[in-house]
Specification:
The chain has helices at residues 20-27, 31-40, 47-60, 64-75, 83-96, 100-110, 117-130, 134-144, 150-166, 173-186, 190-203, 209-220, 224-235, 241-253; strands spanning 264-276, 300-314, 319-332, 342-356, 359-372, 378-392, 398-411, 421-433, 437-448, 452-456, 465-471, 474-487, 491-513, 519-541, 546-559, 589-601. It is of the alpha+beta class. It folds into three domains: 1-159, Serine Threonine Protein Phosphatase 5, Tetratricopeptide repeat (Alpha Horseshoe), CATH 1.25.40; 172-254, Tetratricopeptide repeat domain (Serine Threonine Protein Phosphatase 5, Tetratricopeptide repeat); 354-372 and 379-601, Porin (Beta Barrel), CATH 2.40.160. Helix 4 runs antiparallel to helix 5 and helix 6 runs antiparallel to helix 7. The relative contact order is 0.06.
């Protein structure tokens, strides 16, 4: 029996106008037209590219002998095609011509391309079988099987069934049911495939491969709980190393938390331009400036660039680790605001343990390092962080998580000593996962016990010195929600909103030291802020590596500390002098940030 192998005939997608129409015709199935157009373009320096396309078009048109002639000519040109793909497509022509020994060798040569290796080995097996060498065919099948993808496994099992038939062996019911399952799986009939795989698993209860593929079929139908049960059961049975690795990959896809991304390395980089309407509110530390008025220019265009590196590890079946580093530089272009430019470095190491079927426990440690300024580049703040979390995945759709975080922050220069102190966070969140959308809601309590800034104010006419005493420590309650929506394969959007109440831990006041040395504390006030944060982003994937994103962020802060607030008549007098004229800053402000970023990942 002669079986035509599954062929991978790939046209070179080299750029250049002469071949555009030919490639379009080939992609549209107009092979005679594609051949004619490619022949017209068959001139140096694209002679090999054009002849290669001529050969592919002739093969698809059912003329393998003429196709072979064009492929051989293409390989002699200066712009010869890639050896792996060329050998594979040449083998397909030889196979169609009944030259099975030559086809077997050419398929073997195609394995120099790792992406084609297993399908090439399987097709070499078909060629060997049709050449009357079932033993060689079995060797090729054994070589192609380990690590085969689902589609490649269909070829291998089909080959093995034909080898058994050629050798006069009877295929077991279990193997036949498994083969039928692969055929159905490859055709996209996943319910039917799962039925075949479960039958194979019943007939061979010690073999894990049928149970694994039953779980893979369930996953394709969206039955995540069933899929996880099948694949977990498969791991307790006999599996080849490649199948065991595949089972772990499926469990990664079916899991949440650190495991969900699977093991691997990821490098990312990005650059963008943006606009910040209120640079003085930097978001990292409230470096507020006395005597700030509504006339102060606080807006600037900025440029930003960043890099990131992440490594994910599977330490065991239930223990996963994640190492990450990220660095960002934002530079403001406004001369008066360049000193507020920021550079951030952040590193973290995390470990998560699947303590039970739906319970995850994790710990993490890391640090942040902030710098500020451009020409006057200097350290701003360092932070050592530790946090722990407990997550319960109640179902495939929902998870509840509790995070506890501690950070010790330190100002890196004397002017930033007030940024030194501990911070404590406790966050309770609930996540809802839908097919193309996820929604997370949270509540957070935070204590940021950083220090107090003493800032000189303008002296009065009597010559007395004045200092603003500005405590920055606060405790706050925040609630918010975020959502992410995926539109097909190229677009996704996100939206996040948060409201927060901040109660400062100590009073702010104006300290006046008279010429006689006496000290007064005026305008004592306990600051309270109400904040609203809104962030939205829209991203489109330009290619497998590139992504373009547009972001907008809004921060609205309302405070009882504001030099612009008016006072009732008679309140700004001795002995308390409780009036906003002594406030140290404008606590009522808005901040708008717009940014367009191009990112790449590997």
């Amino acid at each position: 029996m002669t079986v035509v192998p599954a062929l991978t005939l790939v046209a070179l997608l080299a750029t250049g106008d002469p071949l555009e129409l030919a490639r379009e015709a080939f992609a549209g199935g107009r092979y005679d037209e594609a051949e004619q157009l490619a022949q017209q373009a068959a001139l140096p320096p694209r002679l090999g590219t054009a002849l290669y396309l001529v050969g592919l078009a002739r093969f698809r048109a059912g003329r393998p002998a003429e196709a072979l002639e064009a492929l051989d000519a293409a390989m002699l040109a200066e712009d010869a095609p890639e050896p792996g793909q060329w050998s594979f497509n040449r083998a397909a022509c030889l196979y169609a011509l009944g030259r099975f020994d030559e086809a077997e060798q050419s398929f073997a040569n195609a394995a120099v391309d790792p992406a084609l290796a297993r399908v090439a080995w399987a097709n070499a097996g078909f060629a060997a079988l049709d050449a009357g060498a079932p033993e060689r065919a079995a060797t090729w099948a054994d070589r192609a099987a380990p690590g085969a993808s689902e589609r490649e496994a269909v070829l291998v099992e089909e080959l093995r069934a034909l080898i058994a038939q050629a050798q006069g062996r009877t295929v077991s019911e279990s193997d036949e049911a498994y083969r039928q399952g692969l055929v159905s799986f490859d055709a996209g009939r996943f319910d039917e495939a799962r039925a075949h795989f479960l039958r194979a698993a019943t007939l061979a209860p010690d073999s894990g491969r049928a149970k694994l593929m039953a779980g893979a079929s369930a996953w394709r139908t969206g039955a995540r709980t069933v899929a996880r049960e099948d694949i977990t059961a498969a791991l307790s049975l006999t599996l080849e190393p490649g199948d065991r690795s595949t089972a772990h990959q499926y469990l990664d896809r079916l899991s949440f938390g650190l495991r969900a991304s699977g093991p691997g390395l990821r490098l990312s980089a990005g650059a963008g331009l943006g606009f910040d309407s209120n640079v003085l509110q930097v978001g990292v530390a409230a470096r507020e400036v006395s005597d700030t008025s509504s006339d102060t220019d606080t807006a600037s265009v900025f440029a930003e660039a960043g890099v990131g590196l992440a490594a994910r590890f599977r330490l065991s079946d239930t223990l996963f680790a994640h190492l990450s580093y990220g660095g960002i530089q934002r530079a403001y272009t406004q001369d008066s605001l360049r000193d507020y430019s920021l550079q951030l470095h952040r590193a973290a190491a995390s470990v998560e343990w699947e303590a039970a079927r739906r319970v995850r426990v994790g710990v993490s440690a890391g640090g942040d390092l902030f710098f500020t300024g451009l020409s006057d580049f200097r350290g701003l703040q360092a932070s050592a962080n530790g946090w722990a979390w407990l997550a319960v995945d109640e179902s495939e759709l929902t998870s509840t998580r509790l995070d506890l975080t501690f950070a010790q922050k330190t100002g890196l220069a004397s002017e930033f000593d007030y940024l030194t102190g501990p911070r404590l966070d406790a966050t309770l969140s609930q996540e809802l996962r839908l097919a193309a959308q996820s929604v997370t809601a949270w509540y957070r309590y935070r204590q940021d016990r950083i220090g107090t800034l003493v800032q000189l104010a303008s002296p009065d006419s009597s010559g007395a010195s004045q200092e603003y005493v500005i405590p920055f420590g606060w405790a706050g309650h925040a609630a918010g929600a975020s959502t992410r929506l995926v539109f097909g394969r190229r677009f996704d959007a996100s939206l996040e909103a948060e409201v927060e109440r901040r109660d400062y831990l100590h009073d702010s006041y104006l300290r006046v030291t008279a010429v006689d040395g006496s000290v007064e504390e005026l305008g004592r006030r306990r600051r309270q802020d109400r904040r609203f944060v809104l962030g939205t982003a829209l991203s489109t994937r330009l290619s497998a590596r590139l992504q373009l994103s547009a972001r907008y962020e809004l921060l609205v802060n309302r405070s009882n500390v504001d030099t612009r607030l008016t006072d009732e008549p008679g309140t700004c007098v001795a002995p308390d002098y409780v009036c906003h004229a002594y406030d140290y800053t404008n606590g009522n402000y808005e901040k708008h940030v717009l940014m367009l970023e191009l990112g790449a990942s590997w």
